[in-house]
């Protein structure tokens, strides 16, 4: 690709950037929390059809996924869950095929009064766009769409097949991405524009979700000693799991990518529900938990360690020793992923990155997870993850930095052109 072609593509990104931001704002304005992603998928489908892509829009069938590697259990109503894929098919095949994927699901907002601006009324100020999902990762999804637009506006068209995929459930199980593979979508490489602060995700953790179901013995609080408090018993188990977290972080010091990362294994008791009455010793308590695992660690073996930890802690408790808690697997059962066998797409991206950023690509060991794992682990499709800079993902006042988004869009457009090849439209 000539320097003149590169500059035409970069200029096209700049020319379309205001429209890109307007589309991103409209996308962020849709409250696509778990189970409510349909309107976002409708919007993506419309955007793809407007551009002439072949659109595949289907309801996800969990029975077709439950035996696949990386499947996590679904507990909510999944009857409206959909995946949307737009496919570009070239007139002539000269380049290498590509999957571009983004997820449209977002995490809950928390108390609205703790946001400075309403989370689903995205605001642009001081060079940032604020809103739930503005960073993670609706801006990246729309950036991928406008990167393709920029190639077209530059008077070019890709010479390889491209699948533009909008998935759900990235924040809780990943079955949206898994559904694309079950559907048969494949490519020579995958690119996911998650917000990575302008670094390439070299290695990422996996995640296990589980629920502690603790039972107590209810009595009136005036004779509390005669009963057993399920909430306090749950704290006993949480403290034991914190010791498991410490042990796993010691183990992580032997990992070649994570040995330099402080505390890569994070355990989080994220939801707690329990009790029925303030003056009754609570008879029940459920705690939903998340813990990370590193690439190469067996999910099954880690599950056994979690069960052993909970069992040992229960044996040391007056009530739980005879009334053991239950552990339910409640979402992610996801392996970690290391980017390997990816020399060719990385070389193509390195060229694009050098033009836009003026230097070599920096690597990042990521203490969260992305959907890249499904493509790499399940089908050996090298899966790159690179994107814009932002902050407060999963927190209040989430934002993406707009100039970083512009640069990430430019790098993505040049990478698509380099990897897939382009010819005059």
Structure characterization notes:
The protein has 425 residues and is an alpha+beta fold. It contains ten helices and 19 strands. It starts with a helix and ends with a strand. 50% of the residues are buried.
Task: Provide a quick synopsis of the model.
Residues 204-316 form the Peptidase M20 dimerisation domain. The protein is of the alpha+beta class and 425 residues long. It is built from ten helices and 19 strands.
Order of helices and strands: HHHEEEEEHEEHEEEHEEHEEHEHEEEHE
Secondary structure: number of strands: 19
Q: For the largest sheet, list the strands in their spatial order.
A: 1-2-7-3-8-16
How many strands, what sense, and barrel or not for the largest sheet? 6 strands, mixed
Computed over alpha carbons, the radius of gyration is 23 Å
Secondary-structure-derived class? alpha+beta
Q: Looking at the structure, what is the overall shape?
A: elongated
Strand content: 15-25%
Number of helices: 10
Distance between the termini: 15 Å
Low-confidence spans: none
Question: What value does the average pLDDT take?
Answer: 97
Helix content range = 25-40%
SSE inventory with pairings:
Layout: H1 3-15, H2 17-28, H3 38-50, E1 54-59, E2 82-88, E3 98-103, E4 123-125, E5 128-130, H4 134-153, E6 156-158, E7 162-167, H5 175-183, E8 189-192, E9 200-204, E10 206-215, H6 230-252, E11 267-274, E12 284-293, H7 299-315, E13 326-334, E14 337-338, H8 343-357, E15 363-366, H9 372-379, E16 383-385, E17 390-391, E18 399-401, H10 402-420, E19 422-424
Parallel strand pairs: 3-7, 3-8, 8-16, 9-15
Antiparallel strand pairs: 1-2, 2-7, 4-5, 5-18, 6-19, 9-14, 10-12, 10-13, 11-12, 17-18
InterPro entries: ArgE/DapE, Bact_exopeptidase_dim_dom, Peptidase_M20, Peptidase_M20_dimer, Peptidase_M20A, YodQ-like
Family: Belongs to the peptidase M20A family.
Protein name: ArgE/DapE family deacylase
């Amino acid at each position: 690709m000539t320097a003149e072609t590169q500059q035409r593509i970069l200029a096209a990104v700049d020319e379309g950037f205001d429209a890109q931001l307007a589309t991103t704002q409209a996308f962020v304005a849709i409250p696509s929390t778990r189970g409510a992603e349909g309107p976002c998928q409708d919007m993506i489908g419309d955007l793809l059809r407007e551009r002439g892509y072949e659109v595949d829009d289907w309801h996800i069938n969990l029975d077709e996924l439950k035996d696949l590697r990386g499947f996590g259990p679904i507990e909510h109503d999944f009857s409206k869950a959909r995946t949307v894929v737009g496919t570009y098919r070239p007139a002539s095949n000269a380049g290498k095929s590509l999957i571009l994927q983004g997820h449209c699901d977002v995490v809950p907002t928390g108390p609205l009064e703790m946001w400075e601006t309403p989370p689903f009324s995205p605001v642009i100020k001081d060079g940032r766009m604020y809103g739930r999902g503005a960073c993670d990762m609706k801006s990246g999804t729309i950036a991928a769409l406008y990167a393709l637009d920029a190639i077209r506006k530059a008077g070019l068209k890709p010479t390889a097949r491209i699948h533009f995929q909008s998935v759900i459930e990235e924040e809780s199980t990943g079955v949206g991405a898994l559904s694309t593979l079950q559907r048969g979508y494949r490519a020579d490489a995958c690119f996911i524009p998650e917000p990575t602060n302008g670094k390439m995700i070299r290695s990422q953790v996996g995640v296990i979700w589980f629920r502690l179901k603790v039972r107590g013995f209810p009595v009136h609080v005036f004779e509390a000693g005669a009963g057993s408090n399920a909430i306090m018993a749950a704290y006993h188990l949480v403290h034991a799991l914190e010791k498991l977290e410490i042990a796993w972080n010691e183990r992580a010091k032997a990992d070649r990518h994570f040995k330099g990362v402080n505390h890569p294994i994070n355990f989080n008791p994220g939801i707690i529900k329990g009790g029925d009455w303030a003056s009754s010793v609570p008879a029940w308590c459920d705690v939903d938990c998340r813990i990370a695992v590193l690439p190469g660690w067996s999910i099954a073996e880690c599950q056994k360690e979690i069960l052993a930890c909970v069992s040992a802690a229960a044996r040391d408790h007056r009530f739980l020793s005879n009334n053991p808690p239950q552990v339910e697997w409640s979402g992610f059962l996801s392996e970690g992923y290391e980017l390997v066998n990816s020399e060719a797409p990385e070389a193509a991206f390195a060229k694009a990155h050098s033009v836009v950023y003026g230097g070599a690509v920096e690597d990042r060991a990521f203490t969260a997870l992305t959907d890249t794992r499904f493509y790499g682990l399940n089908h050996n499709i090298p899966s790159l993850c690179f994107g814009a800079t932002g902050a407060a993902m999963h927190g209040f006042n989430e934002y993406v930095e707009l100039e970083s988004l512009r640069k990430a869009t430019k790098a993505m457009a040049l990478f698509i052109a380099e990897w897939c090849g382009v010819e005059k439209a």
